[in-house]
What we know:
By secondary structure, this protein is mainly β. It contains four helices and 30 strands. The chain has helices at 322-328, 408-421, 463-466, 485-493, and strands at 11-16, 23-29, 34-39, 44-48, 54-59, 67-72, 78-83, 88-93, 98-103, 113-118, 126-131, 136-140, 149-151, 161-164, 170-174, 179-186, 191-199, 207-214, 219-225, 230-234, 241-242, 252-257, 264-269, 273-278, 283-290, 295-300, 306-311, 315-320, 444-446, 452-454. Residues 2-6, 332-347, 359-382, 390-408 and 424-477 have low confidence and may be disordered.
Amino acid sequence: MSSRANKLVPEKLVIKVNHDKQVLAIAFLFKDQHFIVCLHDGRLQVREAKTGKLLGDPWQDIEGSQICAIDVSPDGGRVATGSKDGKIRVWKWNGKTAKIIAESKKHSNGTAANCVCWSRHDGGAYIASGFDDGSVTVWPVSSGLKNPTSTDDTRLRHIHAISYSHDGTQLLVSGYDREISRLTINEKAQEIQLDEVIKICNNPNHVSSATWAMTTDGHAIVTGLTDGKITILELPEGQPLELEGPGHSDLVCAVVLSLPNKRVLASSSYDRTLLFWDLGTKRKICQPLLHSADVTCAAFATNGTLVATGTCDGEVYLWDVADFLSNAMPTEDANGRDGGTTARPSLNFDPNSPIPTRQREARQPLVPPSLDTPNRAKPIYGRGFFDDVRPAVVDSPTPSVSRRFSISRPIKVAASRMQQALRVSRIQIERPLTNVYLGDIQEERQNHHGKHQVTSGIPLTTFEQQSGVTSEPATRGAVLIRRTRWVNALLRMGCIPQYPDQVD
């Protein structure tokens, strides 16, 4: 690389790593002195960052499985890979050859491991991987990738990108869907739980890349969409907002954050450009960096001075962006403003603070109000028809609000009122009553003449028999009541049995 000069376009080094083979992934290692590329044929190459010279032989899986994802450990000396056979491997490179030092079992469903990510808060003690069936697994490195913690509750069909939060308590996953998912990690309980599913866009657009980020006010999530837009969502209650400025015109394949200056974001796209964004102002900075083919991946060096990009035609671009970005970043005036283009950092925000999770409000269960109040003294009546009726039992321990106003409540109110209206003495009957039968349910049938008969029960001398009215059957245990509007309502609902009317 030549000396850094203040130019509108940064200096670049173009390296042909393969002929007509797409570069799937790229990353820096060994204190940014080398970089590693993952090719579409499943091989890995290590090259010098200054000259692009190939170092040693290409890495290749001895089982012949295609490597489709890579990530470098925080110390820069180990590489984690995910393969089409669903295995996760850890490689160690001595400068000439690479050796596998840990290997996991195949994924349970035999699906590909599309992405891997090292934890950085603990120096790389864990590796998280996302699979093509929508599941996520966290592997402990110290145990040789044994006894992992897994979950398939991500609400995503596929996972193509995964990243650790800065404190290692959460995972962000995405996979060419309209939503992204946040997962919480409980290391003590060895559990991975779904914390939140966030809808980013609508059809036909999908999220093609995602990463954790920071603004001047707090933590955030940045996503790249298939239509070329870049959106930012501030946590915990923000909504996805599109970054300002002319953006990409095609699918955004990668969004990466500069580690030294976490306000700077780089995005690569199939429109053959690399763009830079200031997350403080939520605007684009610098002019687009052009490539000869679609840009498929991008990576920042740990010191933030270099950016590496890979294309679909097998080329790698190394961009020296130290002075390029420093000249393009807006500067504050004495009042902390430069015409509204610079955001002042919030004094209340600590970049090392935990990322807030979704707030779950503890709601008290809503119990339907009882018709009978325990403190209210009930009037004493004779035993009536509804004395043995018990209120309906709700199966769910926490009924919803809508169940409070179900159809059972009007019926209970009507039954309570009827309980007052139907308390008639069985002995003192002062007038002829209707043909409503409220005693033991008697079985009846119709003979061939069309007349109804009572087939069981003992006749009982009633007021009607003494007065000469014998058209209504009466049996032991029967109670005859007046036909009021409430009785008619219950007859229409079928709540009480009735013999066919013979005398009106």
